[in-house]
Design brief:
By secondary structure, this protein is mainly alpha-helical. It folds into two domains: 80 residues, no CATH class; 33 residues. It has five helices and no strands. The chain starts with 19 loop residues before the first helix and ends with a helix.
């Protein structure tokens, strides 16, 4: 059962591979078990959908409001940042700031880390 290549630590497991008959038996057993399980009917799946959508409208409204508030905050916080490379370089010069490589790439190529 050791691989003939001579590489230590390698084991040939091809002898344990199932043949077609064994594979068919396993798949058949799984399909038989699935056929015996109860399936959701259309009325039950509709009730499940209604419980998810209509029972908790307050959660959906709260999540939507939170998303709107957070997106507005992001827009307001990022609106003050200069967008053109000239204004970015001017702000660096005013502050006597030495830009990092990431800041240079962001300014000239539009890359945001």
């Amino acid at each position: 059962m050791i691989d003939a290549s001579g590489t230590p630590g390698r084991v040939d497991l091809r002898a344990l591979a199932p043949d077609d008959a064994q594979r068919d038996r396993v798949v058949g057993a799984v399909l038989d078990r699935l056929a015996g399980r109860p399936q959701l009917g259309p009325e039950r799946s509709a009730a499940l959908l209604e419980s998810v959508i209509f029972v908790r409208p307050a959660w959906v409204a709260t999540a939507a409001a939170a998303i709107i508030i957070l997106s507005a905050a992001v827009v307001l916080l990022t609106r003050d940042t200069p967008s053109s490379p000239e204004s970015v370089i001017a702000s660096w010069a005013e502050r006597q700031h030495v830009p990092t490589n990431g800041e240079l790439i962001s300014a000239f190529l539009g890359y945001t880390p």
